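Q: Can I see a sequence and its folded structure?
A: Here is a first one.
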Amino acid sequence: MYLRDEAIVLQNVVWREHDAHVTLFGREHGKMLAIARGARRWQAKHRGHIDALNQIEVMLASGTTHETMAVARSLRARPQLRSLLSVVSVAGQAADRVSRLTEPHAAEPLVFDVLQELLNVCQAQTQEWTAERSRCMLAACTLKLLDALGYAPELEQCHRCHLSMNEDVGFAERPFALVCRACADRTMQTAPSFSLRLIRFLRRRSLTDCLAVTVEIPALRFACDFIESCYREHVPLKDLQERIPCSLLCS
């Protein structure tokens, strides 16, 4: 049986001498693991099409443990994305998080749309991002991924008393949830001004709008730390200890 889908290449890792182990995320079939036979040979038909972060049209032959790549045709290569180190770093980390948060063959079209939106925003950039801008964009993308998968935190009501929260919130460490001032204790970190408003903004607005946001550094750090904590809560510890494959950044 063959699977045909539009997919984004999450990873492309060397396997054996001339083959490649490719992780894809398809619009209709979700995460797919495939072996591209002979893909690292100079005359390979897949060469150049299955680089990490490419958007491709793919046809896979189903197998017992993995799929074998039959056809791959590049739809969007996004060369500008790879010319800026800070931008491709964010895109690579986002692709890695999609791979860690999803299971094979679980259709998640909203996740595909979030990753595609980020890659389109990255492709449009003409200059490097600052460290704060990079962290903000990764946090915004991560929050949208969590939201699409049903893992997003509660941002409207206090985790303890379930009343509506204003800007004056605390930060509960376990579980990773926001609590109001009345429920917070001395061990919790107090959120800087506009932190909750920023987290809500990153969740609701497009990534293009998130790129243009301007906020004070303490509020940005709190928001990013909170989103990172939520992400780590849903990823196994052994996965977090693994390094991001170099193919994500230098394909």
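Q: Show me another, different protein.
A: A second, unrelated one:
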Amino acid sequence: MKSERGSLPCSDDGLLARAGPFRYPPLMFARLRARRPGTTLGNLFVYETMRRLLSLIIRVLYRPVVQEVGRVPLTGPVLLAANHQSFLDPPVIGFAVRERHLDYVARAGLFASPVFGGLIRALNAIPISEEGADAAAIREILRRLEAGRAVLIFPEGSRTADGAMHEFKRGVAVLVRRSSCPVMPVAIEGVYDTWPRSARWPRLFGCRVAVHYGEPIPHDELLQDGPDAALDRLRREIDSMRLNLRSELRRQTGGRFPLPGPGDESVS
């Protein structure tokens, strides 16, 4: 019987499972390239290797709660907007997205080290200034979206100092308006208590982390009441999901984690 994809007798997954990855290398490479259009195989292999390694570490140390990752579109440009709690946010959000490789926005200072800067560039990071609107970074994000990629941004601009969500930067409104693609709200929780900005290293034991992927919002729908209303909607949706994750982590830990604090407050 023919499959829906053409005259092959079974699905791509069936071919690879029966014949092994080396008998159909063009098919294997095509599937890998689809995870991040327009990039090199070397970059794809580096990202995938790191994603799998970090996935193992995160699962062993933090037993993550992952909700609705299947909502991430498999193809096409999408802007993921998440609250920002810790340096752990990008790997915790990205490790569960198996069918796509994310591009990340990171503060420019992290690229100062040749070694670490080179590593995060290989992992698709985009440098952005913390001093205000960064026109070059916005252009680069738009270029990657036009290439069909999924880009993760943190509209607060910097890590929370107390676990609560804070105001979004005004430059995010410009980016959302010019992106012409769906925007997906993403919430992360437990990561502030695991690695607050006041700590040099993350805690390795006694912590849990959680991430929830919201419904992608079509561009025209999000902006129908203007950029300010769009940012307010995103902020409220992300914070609502974050608070639900906070409650779920406490339910699973018998109320032990996360500890009570400013993170229990909702945005006004």
